[in-house]
């Protein structure tokens, strides 16, 4: 038996506010349908005044998404505000790739016409959100209307050491990826720094020594792999050594100067030895304050 879903008009609803939408996205940013994103910040204060609704990022690529939410239809002020916040963030953190994201209940034809004037100069994603009443609850859905790649209609700061624990990362990553982290700690990091322990934070798992944070290495567990970051300057010799060992390198973090490695469930001896040598260099540089 088919059930007709009741669409909820958020602009007229007494309790389902913009803050409610923001909280739903912040709880699980993947509902937007634009990637395995995580929350970097909420209500981010801007130097020119105002607050950015959400700053999201992709842990794999470090790309950032400046998200603005609008109840009802898109309007000129919404467009200008979104682009302004995107521009502020990209100028403030030019080492990262940025995309502006507009979320609204209705994406108007006028909005699409205005965006065409930019001729693809601004990486912009437009998402149409719809809320349905389902029994006693509500379902929030998003449909991509404008994509940053094609710029047409679609047919189909800095890590903050907020305390966390293992259970949080088991939820964000998986039990499998945490085993990878623990294996790297035991077989790689402790070969260099025997006192090293895991220090769980909201955005990454760092290293602690005698209770003090010493993040010459950090980890971000994903569902089936781990992103291991090693703090070393970008040098051709290091790149060549990693390539020779068969390590899968990701985009270099130019902001915090970390080599980033995609670590699968198993490593061969050559890969493990290469990682150990890199971690040793990072530990020595850390001791020298470099």
TrEMBL record:
Protein name listed in UniProt: DUF5655 domain-containing protein
InterPro entries according to UniProt: tRNA_endonuc-like_dom_sf
A GO MF term: nucleic acid binding
């Amino acid at each position: 038996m088919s059930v007709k879903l009741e669409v909820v008009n958020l602009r007229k609803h007494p309790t389902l506010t913009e803050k409610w939408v923001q909280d739903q996205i912040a709880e699980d940013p993947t509902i937007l349908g634009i990637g395995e994103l995580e929350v970097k910040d909420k209500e981010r204060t801007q130097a020119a005044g105002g607050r950015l609704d959400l700053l999201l990022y992709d842990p794999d690529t470090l790309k950032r998404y400046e998200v603005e939410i609008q109840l009802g239809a898109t309007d000129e002020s919404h467009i200008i505000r979104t682009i302004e916040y995107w521009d502020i963030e990209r100028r403030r953190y030019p080492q990262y790739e940025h995309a502006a994201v507009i979320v609204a209940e209705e994406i108007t034809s006028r909005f699409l016409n205005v965006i065409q004037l930019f001729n693809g100069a601004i990486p912009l994603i437009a998402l149409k959100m719809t809320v349905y009443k389902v029994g006693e609850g509500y379902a929030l859905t998003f449909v991509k209307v404008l994509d940053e790649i094609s710029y047409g209609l679609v047919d189909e700061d800095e890590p903050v050491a907020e305390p966390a624990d293992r259970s949080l990362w088991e939820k964000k990553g998986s039990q499998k990826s945490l085993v990878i982290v623990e294996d790297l700690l035991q077989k790689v990091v402790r070969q260099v720094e025997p006192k090293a322990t895991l220090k769980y934070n909201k955005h990454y798992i760092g290293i602690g020594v005698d209770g003090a944070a010493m993040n010459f290495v950090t980890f971000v567990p994903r569902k089936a792999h781990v992103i291991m970051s090693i703090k070393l300057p970008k040098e051709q010799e290091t790149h060549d050594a990693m390539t020779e060992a068969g390590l899968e390198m990701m985009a270099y973090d130019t902001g915090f100067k970390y080599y980033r490695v995609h670590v699968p469930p198993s490593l061969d001896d050559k890969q493990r030895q290469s990682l150990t040598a890199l971690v040793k260099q990072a530990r020595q540089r850390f001791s020298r304050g470099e």
